[in-house]
Specification:
five-stranded mixed beta sheet, GxxExxY protein, GxxExxY, Lambda Exonuclease, Chain A
Length: 126
């Protein structure tokens, strides 16, 4: 079983990459720009990255909804990107729902739209 230290090590690379992108690109771009840039940074750090990873929600063994996480890193950490003025509770709830639907333990919500890059950890039993 993967422990907190494992997840923390992946999160550290993601967060440092996000800050690097924030310093380089600044704010004002669409989420997709930051998604592509972060995928490049993480792949250069030898992490496996899936963009727009489909997440299915099941009820009584039937699919009742489909969502798409911006990034799934190392098949363990969900990254949801925003380009909003500030992070809101709904953004964190979205990530929490993705964790619940997938059984993943750690999610990061990263906002590139404010004056500074903002990162919030969302955990699911970690």
């Amino acid at each position: 079983m993967k422990d907190k230290a494992y997840h923390d090590s992946i999160a550290a690379v993601i967060v440092s990459s996000a800050y690097k992108i924030g310093q380089t690109l600044g704010s004002g771009f669409l989420e997709r720009v930051y998604e592509n840039a972060l995928a490049i940074e993480l792949e250069e750090a030898d992490l496996r990255v899936e963009k727009q990873k489909q997440i299915q929600v099941f009820y009584h063994a039937q699919v009742v909804g489909d969502y798409f996480a911006d990034l799934l890193v190392e098949d363990d950490v969900i990254v949801e990107l925003k380009a909003a003025k500030c992070l809101e509770a709904v953004h964190l709830a979205q990530c929490q729902n993705y964790l619940k639907a997938t059984g993943k333990k750690l999610g990061l919500v990263i906002n590139f739209g404010g004056e500074k890059v903002a990162v919030r950890r969302v955990v699911n039993g970690l």
